[in-house]
Amino acid sequence: MARLVARALTAELLEALSQAALEGRLDRVVPLVTVDAAGRPHPMLCSYLELLAIDPATIRVAIASGSTSARNLEDRRVATLLIVEPDRTVYVKTHAVGPPVVHDRLARFDLVVEELLEDAADPSEGDVGITAGITYGPPPRLDDPRVAEVLALLRLPAGARPG
User: Fold this and answer.
1) pTM given for the model
2) Domains of the chain
């Protein structure tokens, strides 16, 4: 059962999404759900590489500029991140602000956190819990030029244009 715990990222989530310990999270998947033109949820799979918390209220996401998710974010401006791991299951409900920053094949969106919901088993379910998150492999290498492109776009200061 999900319950509202905050209207911004907690210190723990801010740290997890800050890329401070990115190497240890490169194999983890974070689903991002947007809303399509018919009002249906449209999921895509991100990684911690493509997310960067700027502060407790703002998360940047870098995704393919021509993707359905990018169009959904531009048109309807809402998204939910699902962080499902053994130590936490949270839903981060957000809305996109400003135009995306587009560079080559990537679009960077700034997402403002509206609600942080924590999900936990109902007490009637006993000790049931998440035992593993979604992972993929092999994880990308930090020295890969594509990784460098994503990181540079995420870290570009607000208002700056990619070179």
Assistant:
1) 0.95
2) 2-121+135-155 (2.30.110.10)
